[in-house]
C-alpha cells in the first residue's frame, strides 16, 4: 500500500500499490493460480515427508493461462490492437537477442499475414532500426525492428535476484530505525555484472506478448479477406537481395508490393549497398528504393536509386500534422471539448482547418 509520508516514498526504491490495484490483483487469474500451486506444493511436500515419492511425482503445478491474461487485460479487439506495437517491438528485440526460440516463427507468421492481406503502409530506415506501420480497422500500429548487432549479446544479460546486504541500525525511540549510525554490514558477493544491461523484464514479459500477438492473429484471420488490399507496385518484378543485414525486412516490403524474390541470375533488380560483381543488363539499386516506393505509393523512379548515384533523402513517413475540425467539435459534449482544448493548448503545431 502507499506510504503515508511522501518523503518516505521518495527515499525508497520499493513498489507500492493502490487499493484498486490490490482488488484487481486479488481476483486475477495469476493470484488464483499461485494459490492453487502453493496448495499443491504443500501437499507434494507432505507426501515426500511421508516417503510417498511416487504419488508426489504425480502432483504437477498448474500452468498460467496466458490466453486468459490477455483477455482480462484487453476487453475488445481495438484495445488489444492499440498495444500491439509495443508487443511487436519487444518481440523483434527478443528475436535479435535470441531470448526465445518460438519468437521467430510467431513473427514470421505475422509478417506472412501482413503480406497476404496488404496491411503494410509505411517503412522507415532509422538509425536504431526499421519502423513499420500497418493499419487495421483505422487503428495505426507502429513498431520498431532493431538492426542486427553482434555486440548486443556482449552487453546484455538476464540478471538474477541477489540478496541485499543486511544493514544494522541504531534503535531510535521515535522511528525505531535510524540510518545515522551503522553498526555493521554483512558482505555479499555481487552476482550480476553491473556493466551489462538487465534484460530480465523483457524476458519475463515475453510469454504474455507472444500470446498477445497469437490471439490477435487468430481474430484477424477470421475478419480480414486475403489479398483484398495487396498493392501491385512490384508486380512482375524479380529481386535478388545482396544486403544480408536487413534481408528479412526487404523481403517483407517487396512481397507486400507483389514483388518476387529470386536467388539465381533471373533477377531484374539487385538490392544492396556494396556490389562486387555486376551483370550486364541488370539493375543494381540501394535498399532505400524499396522503402521509398512503399511510402510514396509507387511514385518513385528506380533510376534515382542506382548504386553509385547520390540517392534522394530518406524522409520519415511518420511526421504528424494535427488538425482539429470545428464541425467535429460541435458534436462533442462540453467536457470532451474542454479535454480536447487542453490537448490543443499543449501542442503548438495543432491548428484549425
UniProtKB/TrEMBL annotation:
Q: Which Pfam families match?
A: Pescadillo_N
Where in or outside the cell? Nucleus
According to the UniProt record, one GO cellular component term is: PeBoW complex
> Could you state one GO biological process linked to this protein?
maturation of LSU-rRNA from tricistronic rRNA transcript (SSU-rRNA, 5.8S rRNA, LSU-rRNA)
Major localization class: nucleus
Molecular-function GO term, any one: RNA binding
Name listed for the protein in its UniProt record: Pescadillo-like protein
